[in-house]
Task: structure prediction
Amino acid sequence: MMRLEPVGAEALLLVLAEQPDADLPLRIAALADRIHLELGPLLVDLVPGWTTLLLHYDLLRTDHLQLGKRLLPLLEDWCAEAQPPRSGRLHEIPVWYAGEDLAEVARACVLSEAEVIALHSGMEYRVGAIGFAPGFAYLGELDARLALPRRRTPRIRVPAGSLAIAERQTAVYPQASPGGWHLIGRCPRHLFDAHAKPPCPLAVGDRVRFLAIDEATFRAEGGVP
Amino acid sequence: MTGLAVIRPGPLSLLQDAGRLGWQHLGVSPAGPLDIHAAAWANRLLDNRRGTPLVEIALGGTELQSAIDTWVAVCGAELDIRLDGAPRPNWSRFAVRAGQRLGLGFARSGQRAYLAVAGGFRAGAVLGSVATQTREGLGGLHGDGRSLCAGDVLPCAPASLPGAASVPWRFVPDYRAEPCLRVMLGGDAGDFSVADRQRFFAQPWRLSPQSDRMGTRLSGEPLRAPTRQWSLGVATGAIQVPPDGQPIVLMADRQTMGGYPILGWVHPLDLGLLAQCPAHRTVRFARVRVKTVQEEVREFYRFFGR
Result:
């Protein structure tokens, strides 16, 4: 069921589905574009999530109740629309599977490290959302055999380029930042540049495949262990 | 362009404006001042628009030398302000002549002071803002997220104002008091047990020294957090509860999305009081309605400008 909920005093959350599916990121991206086109001046930021769209609005121009009323016809149209099939661009991202939690993940999942790597790199993932940090793309769905809850206490600092998993998601940390996910590998590429257009090579709805590389290739591609 | 030269930056001095808005869909943090109330007053004293670039000075211990005649204002943490050794008042504006040295001592109460200059500091914007985000490497004087260093020159233009002015005393907060922060319940609040919600409001929470511009970490008798699976957009002031049950209040340098369950949001105008608390200070929380908060925040924006 679709729901609209206030988020603090200056934002409104649209909960668009209970569970994500393969087409939902593309559909939410299309809805965000439409809302931006029609209600852009009332809004400060739009943040698509796996099953949600968060609207940060200008409190001097609207509030969650008025905005909700303006959104209803757009949401009705969105529900009625049959989404044209689109596949999204495919990105291949090299990864050296040498994260500091790899052994612990294998143990917790009752798998060998080689099996964890084979399962993780054997899947194609969809960019479901970009957030948390600049260029941090949430990729899904991770194989159920690798699903683990987040760490009980987040790390204060996760190194840039870390490949991580949590629940049914995987992601590469573009910058060093705090983080609560399990680290299973290292990517030598930069996935955000504020001066590039666009600043982030990945977009919501794109597809991603991870290619396992060794330490020598990681270093040759500019990675710093 | 000439301006104010940084002789000693102090532990963490950051150029900030109203924040980096419009890029949260790519994961870019809003940043901006931690204490929007003190920052807004510093700019207002100089007839600057709210969000005009100023410097957020953590803990004080700063010295600058001016190359121009201008006016400055300092608001926020209580600290010694000296111009060529002579005391100047906090929460006030005063003239600075070319060649004079402005010294800020270490904070006696509060954690952040805001130094504004007439007309504002000038720096190149990154993604539309000069706000310094050290974790993301964005903004600041050089555009790369670095905090201010000795030898940096904060560019600004000469200015003159008709005379001194101060913030009326009733608007100057007492940062020594244990704050009671108002909270709008929401998000995943309904998935917490009634007992845990009551415990959140009943007990004092201690500020962890691991707090920073991204989040204020609290410690106390842990809450039992519900589980949540899919990450979604978050707002400043969100109280997220990771599985260890110790709440984290998301501050200006927060992430744009998160996956931990959220109990509610701290009133935006109370976040400054939280930012001014030292490590180990206790804080308490009380409930407030969204509508009440919206009325107060609107009044704040109308008075200081959006």
Q: What stands out?
A: The helical segments of chain A are 24-39, 64-80, 102-109, 113-121, 215-220.
